[in-house]
Amino acid sequence: MDRVDVLVVGAGPSGLVSACGLAAHGVAVRVVDRASGPASTSRANILHARGVEVLQRLGAMGDLRERSLAPVGMRMYVRSRPIATMRFAPDDRESVQALFVSQARIEEQLRRRLTELGTDIEWDTMVTAATQDAAGVTVEFADGTRLRAKWLVGCDGAHSVVRGAAGIEFPGVSVMEQFLLADAHVAWDRDRSASAGFYHRDGLLLAIPMRDADDGGDLWRLMADVPAVDGQLSTADIVARFEELLPIRAGATGVRIREAIWTSAFRIHRRLASDYRAGRVLLAGDAAHIHSPIGGQGMNTGIGDAENLAWKLSLVVSGRADERLLDTYAAERRPLATEVLRTTSANTKILVGNGAVARFVRDRVFIPLLNSPKVQQKATRTASQLWVDYRQGPPG
Ligand SMILES: Cc1cc2nc3c(=O)[nH]c(=O)nc-3n(C[C@H](O)[C@H](O)[C@H](O)COP(=O)(O)OP(=O)(O)OC[C@H]3O[C@@H](n4cnc5c(N)ncnc54)[C@H](O)[C@@H]3O)c2cc1C
């Protein structure tokens, strides 16, 4: 049976940052992913300032700055009337700012850096089970092979097999029945210098300009909450639904969706792992916490987890620290995830506005408040995660 110091399961942003951090400290690490290769479509579209810092420290920024869009604000409309413009308002004193860049590009740069550090991703390699004892973890793969790792890091997303194998619970609730998403080329003469949020009594519709591979200049991310329907929705169903919703919620008539490059219909859950560590198994990213995509915090929180975990695990693997250091990982990162879950769920509920009273508060109080520069600065700062520090955390 093959042996390795650390096996990272999952080559999404959390797994890649974990692996880069471990490899940079000289740890023998392997990375496996069940997918046949890198994803070309993208879920996250913003790398907040703390995420930029982490990638800089890892030497993984590459050309991300050149490939990102300038930060855009969001114009908010209530029943098609402009009510507020939520500007992105970073503090000029900070040395890093958020980048509007796709998750696919970020993962590409992290893979490039990982290869430079001497580790390649093993695609088509699905973990099916893991059992641990005092000295290590025996991992089983779908093809029947096994691997012995001293430590196992589960970055295998929301449906984590590693989390299940370690017996770590993932309690939580559903926040939103159904959200539709389409990244699509749209024949629409809308100004691309800002995103748009359309608030209607039936729900919301977001339109976010995206940078295209060849930047044809008409790629948009459309998102809307809709009542749940039974069964799978095809790309054609989702596109047709957006074509119905655009005139109703955005007052946009005659808009044609030319081609959708990615569509998704998903439920929003809020879930937090009961622990981030069980013996020799550790979790990071979506394997440990999931929540609403509104606010763009998921990938960034996972990147922060992974950096925190990687330097601690590398000290433990090399024998320079006792394994109790690993307990500070959950102690530092889990409270942050609790806070991210709380704020993203609260903001999503306010913005979706279920019920007449909630909509009144949203349209007359919450959205107009977003015009305030102070509110904009606070929201930008909160989203940046630059405020995260561990001074109150336990001693290592
Ligand atoms: C619509 C949408 C928009 C979003 N927007 C933002 C945003 O703007 N900003 C933001 O920060 N976040 C955003 N997020 C969240 C973000 O995409 C996730 O938080 C992020 O991808 C989590 O990264 P991860 O590496 O933890 O997990 P994932 O990206 O899910 O990666 C997990 C990897 O593990 C692999 N895997 C799974 N099971 C196994 C197995 N058994 N064996 C081997 N490999 C396995 C998978 O193939 C996958 O590659 C958004 C999410 C959605 C759905």
- The DSSP helix count reads 9
Q: What does the overall shape look like?
A: globular
The main pleated sheet reads as: 8 strands, mixed
Name of the CATH class of the domain at 2-72 and 93-172 and 270-354 = Alpha Beta
What ligand molecules are bound, each kind once? flavin-adenine dinucleotide
| Rg for CA atoms | 21 Å
- CATH architecture classification of the domain at 2-72 and 93-172 and 270-354: 3-Layer(bba) Sandwich
**Helix proportion range:** 25-40%
Assigned CATH superfamily of the domain at 2-72 and 93-172 and 270-354: FAD/NAD(P)-binding domain
Order of SSEs:
EHEHEEHEEEEHEEEEHEEEEHHHH
How many individual β-strands? 16
CATH topology of the domain at 2-72 and 93-172 and 270-354: FAD/NAD(P)-binding domain
- Parts with pLDDT < 50 across at least 5 consecutive residues: none
Comma- or semicolon-separated keywords:
396 residues, alpha/beta, FAD/NAD(P)-binding domain, eight-stranded mixed β-sheet, 16 strands, binds flavin-adenine dinucleotide
Secondary-structure blueprint:
Layout: E1 2-9, H1 13-24, E2 29-32, H2 49-58, E3 73-78, E4 81-86, H3 103-116, E5 121-122, E6 127-132, E7 137-141, E8 146-154, H4 161-165, E9 172-187, E10 194-200, E11 203-209, E12 219-225, H5 235-250, E13 256-272, E14 277-278, E15 281-283, E16 289-290, H6 298-317, H7 327-352, H8 356-369, H9 373-384
Parallel strand pairs: 1-2, 1-8, 2-5, 3-10, 8-15
Antiparallel strand pairs: 3-4, 6-7, 7-8, 9-12, 9-13, 10-11, 11-12, 13-16, 14-15
Helix pairs in contact: 1-3, 1-6, 6-7
